[in-house]
Amino acid sequence: MTEDPLPDAARTDRIVRLGQSPRNLREALRKSVWIVVWLVFLSAPVHDLVSGGHTPAATAAGWVGLAAFVAVYLTLVFRNMGRAFTGTLAVTLMVLALGALAVVLCLTLGASWLGLFVYVSVACGTTFPLRVSYWTIPLTAVVMLLVGLHGGEEDARNLVLLVVLIGFAMTGVRQLVRTTVELRKARATVAQLAANEERLRLARDLHDLLGHSLSLITLKSELAGRMLPDHPDKAAQQVADIEQVSRQALVDVREAVTGYRRPRLAGELAGAQVALTAADVVADLPAEPGLDGVPEETESALAWALREAVTNVVRHSGARRCTVQLVRRQTLDGPVLELSVEDDGSGGSSGGAPGNGLTGLAERLEKAGGSMEAGRVRHGFRLVARAPLEGGRAPVGAGGDPVGSGA
User: Fold this and answer.
1) Nearest in space to 127 (alpha carbons), one of 161, 97, 95
2) Which residues of the chain have pLDDT under 50?
3) What does the alpha-carbon distance between residue 272 and residue 283 come to, in Å, rounded to a whole number?
4) Which residues contact 79 (CB under 8 A, 6 or more apart)?
5) Is the full-model pTM beyond 0.90?
């Protein structure tokens, strides 16, 4: 079970925005906080400057150098973290400037400034291509060790592992952001392809259903028109045939439209996740419900039940948590698929007579050979809908195995 009500899409969007320019002030502040928190390694240089161990001129120069270093670092990381390396000379020069500032400040002000090389390593990991980061990060550690020989060899040795690890860790973060961006684009492409495929399927089905019928109606209409002056009885027969063909075409179209409008459990589960999250209800839903072998009528009836139950939870219950379970049960009358929706609310349809929605839902389940139970439980309200996995009526049933586990 998860305690995080934030949907996967929203969490993914937060990761993606780290690798893109902020769209508004809120995103800019979020990204700034994420980056600025790592400025903790500047505590040693700041303490060195305020301790009064340098001349006023050296202290002033140190503050100027530190400000320039932080400005260059924040510009690099804020604008380039998670992006592909653009190959611009400006980025390369800014990284080199960071390295040069770190060397000069350490050599002139002492070993307390060796922590600046951590930021040089981070800049190498977040802005350079991977093949370049793999050698510039160790090179940064080597330069730090050489600078440390000037008077802070022990401090340099203590920091060398940190410099290398943080640099390579940032390459991993950058790859994660870029991979997430690519996955989102791929998912959008797949969704578009699926929508296009559905349109093509609809076009094929309509052509198959109506192409022959309309052609036949057109042909018989022309034939009836030619027969009408001389053979009205034969023309009447053609008109009767036209009526029969048109009625059958209407029946075929209605059956096709009914199939297109039939809800699916997978789609309703995704919709339930979005609706519950938007209502600040923690959703515990099956991650990957196994629906192989489930008849369409059974799936459709349970999908309607899930939609109605989630609507009641969102609109009327005042619940903070909602748990959805799909369970296959083997009973004396045959296997059934059971849908259970339970919340911890206290309002809406929790008490009194069932509303029109639940009444209509019960009737729909009965037509599919299923059954429904709804009522108060110890800590909230529970709706249980059952539908047969084979022909026959679903009983009020026994133990079974879950179809999907809570995510």
Assistant:
1) 95
2) 1-19, 82, 84-86, 348-353, 392, 394-399, 401-407
3) 8
4) 21
5) no
Strands 282-284 and 321-331: parallel
- The two tokens of residue 126 are 């977040």
Distance between alpha carbon 61 and the CA centroid of its chain, in Å?
49
Strand, helix or coil at 263? coil
Q: Apex CA 199: angle with CA 198 and CA 205, to 5°?
A: 85
- Joined together, the tokens standing for residue 341 give 């929706």
Q: What is the mean pLDDT of the chain?
A: 77
Amino acid (one-letter) located at 351:
G
Place of tokens 């959008």: 188
Question: pLDDT (tens digit, 9 = 90+) per residue, 346-379?
Answer: 754 444 445 566 787 888 888 888 888 888 888 8
Q: CA gyration radius for the chain?
A: 34
- Rounded distance between C-alpha atoms, residue 137 and residue 118, angstroms: 10
**Polymer length of the chain:** 407
How far apart, in whole angstroms, are the C-alpha atoms of residue 270 and residue 292? Answer: 18
CB 120 within 8 A of CB 102: yes
d(CA 308, CA 357): 7
Running DSSP on this structure, what letter comes out for residue 85? P
Are residues 221 and 246 in contact, defined by beta-carbon separation less than 8 angstroms?
no
Pair type for strands 334-343 and 321-331: antiparallel
Tokens of 338: 């059971």
Query: Residue 67 and residue 75: Cα distance in Å, rounded?
Result: 12
Task: Tell me how far apart the alpha carbons of residues 118 and 101 are, in angstroms, rounded to a whole number.
Answer: 13
d(CA 333, CA 354): 28
